[in-house]
Write a structure and sequence with these properties.
The structure is a homotetramer of 131-residue chains. Chain A is α+β, with helices and mostly antiparallel strands and 131 residues long. Chain A has helices at 22-38, 117-129, and strands spanning 2-4, 47-56, 67-75, 79-87, 94-106, 111-112.
Amino acid sequence: MRFELATRYGDYDTKGHVNNAVFLTYFEMARARAWIEALEGNADFPFILAEATVQYRSQARIGDPLEIEITTTEVRTKAWVWSYVIRDPRDGRVVAEGRTVQVAYDYEGHRTIPIPADIAAKLLDWLGEHI
Amino acid sequence: MRFELATRYGDYDTKGHVNNAVFLTYFEMARARAWIEALEGNADFPFILAEATVQYRSQARIGDPLEIEITTTEVRTKAWVWSYVIRDPRDGRVVAEGRTVQVAYDYEGHRTIPIPADIAAKLLDWLGEHI
Amino acid sequence: MRFELATRYGDYDTKGHVNNAVFLTYFEMARARAWIEALEGNADFPFILAEATVQYRSQARIGDPLEIEITTTEVRTKAWVWSYVIRDPRDGRVVAEGRTVQVAYDYEGHRTIPIPADIAAKLLDWLGEHI
Amino acid sequence: MRFELATRYGDYDTKGHVNNAVFLTYFEMARARAWIEALEGNADFPFILAEATVQYRSQARIGDPLEIEITTTEVRTKAWVWSYVIRDPRDGRVVAEGRTVQVAYDYEGHRTIPIPADIAAKLLDWLGEHI
């Protein structure tokens, strides 16, 4: 899944580059769309975020258009891993890459659980359509 | 009530000035402290924000220390008005001023109400100690 | 000029409503588009922000689509005033309104100036096309 | 180096937890202080951020005090690695951990360089005083 990022003036720092923390917000924007699309609008995802990583490859300057691609490169019994690439679509230059690890969670029992079968099926269906 | 603002690198825009929207966050930081102090830690304030105004007087540059002062200049039957001044404490230069109007609200009945007497008494007590 | 706002999860506060400070960011998003369109991509606007006001009319809850309309209701010799209305497009409900006052500024001379004639002409042309 | 984090209401999401992206801002707050202290106020650091990682260990709820500790666990010829731990100081519970990799950079030559000797000496001095 790939779409254009709607950047904001406040995203840029004093050097005119996207601030490093904002990339996790961009990842979150992509993830929210993917969850909603894959789980058909059910916004109550039984996952907690366990880890996030960003690799900064090149500067995103004010005025540069940005595009994000989200996919899944790894699925574990208890965890779903989203991967992200942010590019300048004019030349394909990679601005940042990263991944976030989401662990299935039982909010009532306060413990991690295997990804529920129906959720896993929907996510894998979605993934199949986007490869 | 007056205290030093803990600014963040992300508050500054591409020109090295505090972004205009961040001043409402600074006001909110002051208001949160004042509510908590006046209402003795009860964080469930029966108010909704009705209006906010910011006047930008001079630039806050990265590295400039900032101090905020919050006070009340107007109390109405249904509304409590907070006023704010942000200064550079080195020379007293005013960076921004503003006010926010909070209206007492019955969240269950979904309607504005007069400020409850016990809340008003606590706020006025607090105000008396800070003039 | 009217367009859909791309909201972000981080815009919402603990009550599930758009945080009050974020509305100034929404205004800024509209203003940036309008400046760029009116001044034909010249992003070096000789204006400084002098004042901003937001009136909060109803809550914007997570999942509510939001649309912003920007127009000009007042032009002074030295100042250009943008006005904003944010609505839920499903029923036209007004979520917030406001205005920002921009003053023409000579960055080299460090003083306010009358709006330069060529800039004023372009802004008024744009305005004529959007009424 | 360890200090209390000044959180903001806008840091919290709809579940009342610190939003995941904000942790990179907390890391940045710690890093900025450490750089300034180590390099004696010289804010022009010849580094670019290459990578950031956050591990989310437990929830930071609104009202929870938060403390951050920053240290260095790895120094390479061209890179300086900051490590961070965020805790609730009431019981030492770890909320988040992470690290950021900064690479020395020649902004004029647009290339990575070994950490300049004088910068490295100051950083190592600072590190020695904080272990």
